Request: fold
Amino acid sequence: MAAEIIHPRSSDPEDPVDAVFALHRGGKMAVAATVPVRDADDLSLAYTPGVARVCTAIAEQPELVHDYTWVANTVAVVTDGTAVLGLGDIGPAASLPVMEGKAILFKQFGGVDAVPIALDCTDVDEIVETVIRLAPSFGGVNLEDISAPRCFEIERRLQEALDIPVFHDDQHGTAIVTTAALWNAARVTDRKIGDLRAVISGAGAAGIAIAKMLVAAGIGDVALCDRRGVVHQGRADLTDVKAEIAALTNKSGKTGSLADALAGADVFIGVSGGTVPEEVVATMAPGCFIFAMANPNPEIHPEVAHKYASVVATGRSDFPNQINNVLAFPGIFAGALSVRASRISEGMKLAAAEALAGVVAEELTPQKVIPSPFDARVAPAVSKAVAEAARHEGVARI
Reply:
């Protein structure tokens, strides 16, 4: 039996479902010209014969493509629709509203143009080959909502093949914002990140990236948990990616379940969904930090978390301390594109996290360890830090 098609109702203009469909009708973005074509003279400049001079110049000096086309400020937002938000594998067509949304956030918050590209293939080789062939039209590639573990190989291979920034936001954007929030949570409670033991629920793209960044940031210890419990080197069922992260984490040698790992832990980071029972939360260290980021239902509801934690964050906009990737990716790409970076390095990611944390460094409270997505200081601060780090690391070309 075919699934029931739910159309937006029109009887109640205040109905939020109506408002959602009304906003999306016709899509959320369009292409606009940046030059006028009012007469024959304009046409001869914007198109033939004038355009031939620009084409010839670029053919002779390929780097001029950054000066005379949109490449210098345009990103491809690429997905295969296999891990869309909390919806899972819904396919490329159904992913487009999310990719359009991502594109308008690039423009709104970072001044970066972005084009949604939903690929009708899931094979790693096909995705890599397709993006490589599309790359001449773009200054960067934002990979989005591609399921793990394929996302790791796709990103790695594209980074190796292309000389433009390739960034899987589900991994690194989440890690950057989480790290910034954790730095500030430690500061506002007069603690040091090196004294903290963190537990991450979820060993997919986001969880693994967060763990790697926390290690780079100097976390005291961090352990990941998947459906089978703590990811540790003694397990025989680990994928190559999980085996790699097991070697970098879990200094204390934790084994067993998520509940076992959380006993006495200073930090909970949730990127998995599910629910952590309150009796397990109660075993965490006094004054702990709880970052329960599953949407729409956090792994630990804030009402429960506040009973035990000194700082609470979620992925939702209706609670304080929203861990939202929009705080990272617009500024990161704006900074990388501004210096024509060949890649986004680990140092650039850490610089982004430091800059993001610094935006509210003088305003810290337990309810404000991370800026609002609408704080106008965010993207400029992140962009500047990323550009400076790119120059420092030798990946900037201007």
Remarks:
- The longest strand covers residues 74-79.
